[in-house]
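Hey, resending since the last one bounced:
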Amino acid sequence: MESPTTVPAVELRISISETEPLIWRQLVLPETATVAELHGAIQTAFGWKDAHLYAVAGHDRGGKKRIIMGVDDGDGPDGTELAVDVRLAELFDPHSPGLSDLEYDYDFGDNWTHEIEVVGPAVLNENTIACLGGAMRGPIEDSGGVGGYANVVAVVSNPKHPEHREAVDWLEFVTQESVSKFDPAAFEITVVNDQLRLLARRLWPGDVTEEEVVFVLGPALWFLNQADPDGLPLTSAGYLKPIVVKRAMTELGWIEPWNTNVSTESHAAPVRIVRERLQEWKLLRKSKDRLLLTPAARKLINRPAMLWHYIADRLASPGHEGVKIATQLRVHWDLSASHPPRKIVDDVVQLALHEHGLRTATGADIPLDWARGLRIDVHQSLLCLRLRGSTKWGSDELGLSDAGVKFLLDVQTRWDGRSV
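The structure tokens again:
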């Protein structure tokens, strides 16, 4: 087994100014990392939600004044640079330890200023980020800056305070966790490094291999190949015949020991769901008593890489704004490993639909059961792909595989407007 490639890195101690006790993290990043990637590492390490603008400002290692922002909205000062265009090696000299003149500011309303100290040079495995230490949990988003957060901590820890109940309700709503689990002194380096590993996989996913393409698209390729060239037989009611259903469940590894009666689509949900999705994606079509390849499928069946992009595009642009919003949420949750608690996930989808201006035909808010239906629809679409490194149907207990990360990043880039 080959040893991982190592790269020059810089060790930085990042502290949130004026917090008491001090909230800090010690991070190691490749010298070639961009400011945008540093931003991602800071957000992850401190538990921020990346919900506000940010900037890095001050003087770089050569004494040049720099103002670096994540977005170019035209409102920044003259000379503002984009974070994706600036690398850490331009800003910090690993061999000159000490407090840097550059600061990272997050949320220009609450104004969280993060001081950056250069600790020294380091070596990292390629495409990784590490946390070596830290103290205290990160502040709560939108808590009012240093003073506001300190007040929240004081009030929720004092049951006799007249605003205790109100503060507890707010904290539980914002964090979606019980106040009994809130510990401002908590810092778990193992958890932080697990989250940084997930971040690194998103930042530097690597090229998609042919084997990854074939594995992720396994169910779709199976159906397309079975339908080539003469199609698959259908019952008079328009469902796949039992012999096809049984073969699909067996060859795709979907039969469970507790459910061997899988000869019809009504008892074999995976077959029905994949068949329906391939029809929605214009890869299969019904014609009389057969399920046939569409013209698009005939072009793609022997070109798995092109089929990968085709399906990613279908997921990114489903033709229904509500499905698109629900898909964007699910992809973000999967890639960031930050799913909302099950009991409120439909409320989150409903709120997102509302914030995007979606209403019923009568102008009313989207009902919760509609939001739930959209979430389930997106969930079923993603089940048709092997995104978690397993052939088992519905392996949601597993994290995304490397190939799954690459596929969902492909979907995400289509919303970001970047080329794939």
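The mean pLDDT is 94.

Sorry for the duplicate.
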